[in-house]
Amino acid sequence: MPVGRIENFLxxxxxxxxxxxxxxxARAETEQARRDLDEALREAKALRAENEFPRDQSxxxxxxxxxxxxxxxxxxLNHVHTWNESTRDDWVADRAATVAPGSRILxxxxxxxxxxxxxxxCVYKSHDFAAYEGYKGDEGTYAEIDYVSDITAIEVxxxxxxxxxxxxxxxxxxxxxxxxxxxxxxxxxxxxLFITAPLGSGLHQQPYHxxxxxxxxxxxxxxxxxxxxxxxIEPNHGYFAHLAQECARFAWNSEKHxxxxxxxxxxxxxxxxxxxxxxxxxxxxxxxxPEFTIGYHVEAxxx
Length: 303
Hints:
7-stranded mixed β-sheet
């Protein structure tokens, strides 16, 4: 409904209000008022119809806004749901390629060792506390671990490694600042430290999930305290990618809340998961708002 038609409809309201009370008006004026009323009601019905949520799936798909949004986003739902991990993996791979062959590297909190092959040109060692009990007691699967200990007391000498990798671990550590100090202790001077941790995330690997909110200021403050200089702090995408991931999560978990969407449950899941999620993910590449990122990828060197 064009704006002009809406304004025309609203402008007639005073006329409609005075119809029941102006019994002394001329017959012609009364008839004109009734015609105005009929036309205004018809336009009101048309306005409502144009703004009603399409009940037919084909009408929904052909709506101009839906068509335009779909033209802007080209990623499938699975990619939108997993970009956080895939982007982090790419970052680790890029850093691994810059580590000199033969370097000694320790993967702190290595878990299943997903990055071991990236350091095939190095002397790769792994560390973990190897005591993970997951959600509802399901046990995590760990790779062969070289050093099993608390992260704040790794049984190696000072200055033992040329590089240290620690990805998505600090949120699971009761004393993360002490953990950072320990990594600095066992890193040799001019050694490289690669860290990722979430700024925000849902609960996972329970009950070993203690913290979030690892900001650039946190890294700068505590790395400096332990004689490490920040080389780079890169946000893992921004606000709109974060929003896209949550839209994808809405769709992935739709069976848990579909009863609250009435007859539009499937369409709500499709709209938010298949239309809005890719749209927001594509928008993130155009409008970067790093303050609401998932987390940061950090590189530092020891003095």
